[in-house]
Amino acid sequence: MPFRPTLRGTLDAVPRYRRHYISLAALLGLGLIAACGGPYPQSTLAPTSDFGVAIDRLFTGIFWWAVVVFVVVEGLLLFSILRFRHREGAPAPEQHHGHTALEIAWTLAPALILVFIAVPTVRTIFATAGDAPPGALRVEVIGHQWWWEYRYPDLGLVTANELHVPVGRPVVVDITSTDVIHAWWTPKLGGKRDAIPGHHNKIAFRADSIGEYMGQCVEYCGASHANMRLRTFVDSDSGFQAWVAAQRAVPAAPAAGSPAETGKQMFQKYGCIGCHTVAGVSAGLIGPNLTHVASRTTIAGASMMNTEQHLRDWIGNPPAMKPGSMMPNMHVSAADLTALIVYLQSLK
Amino acid sequence: MSEPTGLKSWLTTTDHKRIGKLYFWTAFVFFLLGGFEALLIRAQLAKPDNTLISADTYNQLFTMHGTTMVFMALMPLAAAFFNYIVPLQIGARDVAFPRLNAFSYWVFLLGALFMNASWLLPHHPAPDGGWFGYATLTEKQFNPGPNIDFWLLGLQILGIASLAAGFNFIVTILNLRAPGMKMMRLPVFSWMTLVTSFLMITAFPVITVALVFLMFDRVFGTHFYLPQAGGDPVLWQHLFWLFGHPEVYILILPAMGVISEVLPTFSRKPLFGYTVVVYSGVLIGFMGWGVWSHHMFSVGLGPIADSVFALTTMLIAIPTGVKIFNWLATLWGGQIRLTTAMCFALGFIALFTIGGLSGVTHAAPPADLQQTDTYYVVAHFHYVLFGGTMMGLFAGMYYWWPKMTGRLLSERLGLVHFWLMFIGMNLTFFPMHLIGLLGMPRRIYTYSHDLGVDSMNLLCSIGAAMLGLGMVVFVYNMWRTRRHGAVAGPNPWGGATLEWSIPSPPPVHNFDVIPTVTSRVPLWDAPPKPAPPPGHIHVPAGSWWPMVAAAGLPVMALAPLTHTVWIVFVGAAILLFGIYRWAFEPFEV
What is the ipTM score, two decimals? Predict the structure, then answer.
């Protein structure tokens, strides 16, 4: 049967030097799309922990097997379409019904490839099951609609939305929830695990490099699922010790008559104490612990930066900033809000 | 024998061809609705921090997009072909239980309308718990409105339609085959209908149990999924995915059946490895029951459970791969005619392969911990369900349209439709692989510019608009065909199976004389002989009672929705009255 070069014919019509322009343009297009974005703070493709690296290695292996199968299947498909086109007047093709040896071959070939995928998969499952060496830093993560509570049981610390861990030291994270199912994920530090009420999940990792890592809740958990974000700070050893010391200290009471002192009264007047803990002032358990809220870089489930303006927007009308927010609009007057913000910003 | 016309003849019809058309048009409208919901989603995600759509509405849109596409568009579109084509392929005059068939359709229509009625109430309390409805988010304490009630009641009604249809097609295919139509001569589409029907009657009871538990939790204050009282939200996930994974095969097997008909016809070669393709389909149906926890790798079931489900999931890739190789071998050495139907079938192979391969990457649980609940998974299953199921169903639409209407769809518009879908589909869903790997979660109404995925999201939205345009072309093509389509004749494509041996559209009794089958490709091996003039042919008469019985179900569902007990008795009375009259209806000719 003569070869009917349909696609080749189409490309033949384009002068050879122009063909390079076509491939160049295609590459440029992809490059531009990639270049428009970045620097991809939640990329899973640039892991910076042992957990993340183990996953990435497994995924890369499977990915290249998939590329091989993709090229074979799509290649055969394209070749068949081009090579076996109908021609007027050609006799009916041979009526093949099957071929046993071929069937056995293309059953065994994928089975063999799957062995090469399954062995490292099972190995990685057990390696990343969340077991940590003794002496690992323990952290409890508790999901709430829509913020994260962090407890360090060995250090006696409670904070929210921003996790601090020391570089190079194993960390084991125990994950649960008090209301609906969430999932805790800092992509660069490794995979996610669900936060399920009544269950405890474990992640163990050792962060490789100092830095600030973005993450967010990744199990649909209601109205503000999209606004339930988080940050993980990998500190130097001394940086982490300093952070722990600062978090353990009880913030000094504001000086009598200062604006912060007025703000502290507002913190009581508007009922903030009912839900929030500030050590030495209140013991609310519904919202995040605010003892050191000024030391955090973000507010409102890590969905906004911790600036004066954002505090004003957020406390002024929480449901507008975070739909479905459990914190109601307390209708704080402008003057009281200013005092409240001064107080909150004093809680370093 | 002339066919009755008019509204009454459609409302009371028990003719499988008319019910097939009712299924088709209803499902097609819901497909457009689900597609419209998807376009709104893509409009919101076209840029970061967008405020076009509120969080609450967005959550309703993605919930109803998924629910609509799975239960009201893709499954019933496949059911339209089960209805119209299977009796013709096996040489039968109708399905085994024509009135039960009408009942299935009316239950499906009323269930779909019931759930979508939530859009029309004040403040549109449409379902907003995701198509997967994870407890505890769907419990009364976290979702006190009627949103979830609409969802769980609507799904229970739709499940009854699927169960009735499943039993009907199993009995039809096993019992009503023409003489000589042995199981291993059955066209592959009918085979896949049989496997799908078995999956429907076994999978839907599981989700019904899950939904009844949830309904009890919400209405009667039980605690099946509430941990405070000893319940467990993970129980919901096991039940849902124990249904949900066979459901994936309920969606893909019919499309695999369609292309197993289209590829041989337009290659002018019988299906390569028929037996292997059939057994692979059966095997996929069985194995589909043993993989559900791969939807739950991040739940923390432990390394042993994760390993087992990883291996079973990888194993299921083998029969799937075998099918693809047999389709390629069918093309090999054939005489390929690139009709629109064929283009869609080839598109199925090209795109479903990508969906299958990305599926293997999250069959590995550790890799899945980075992928699950991100856009990578959205990309994966749209390559399976859009690139696979919808491409297959479009192939079926172009292939069987002339059989169903007597006229051919325009091939020129068809190819425009195909290329808009094929390019638009890749533009929409391919970048989502990367968007997911770069850390964007699913089901979020807004995303931060900081993620760096703005331009890729815009690209997805442009692709979605192209898909919308493709559908406009398709609708125009169907509308235009009513007057301007070329008259098809009995066998416009040179097909090999029995549906092509009779006029297009077929007479109400299908076959003047029930054929005797001696081959898998009867029309290629022995062209039909002119049939002797028919004697008196019995055709079942129409009936109102399936519709009356079906109407009882949404009335019953109003009771838990409104917390009014007496309504359930009214609904039950309507249902029982309908069934009673149906059972004792005079058997007319």
Answer: 0.93
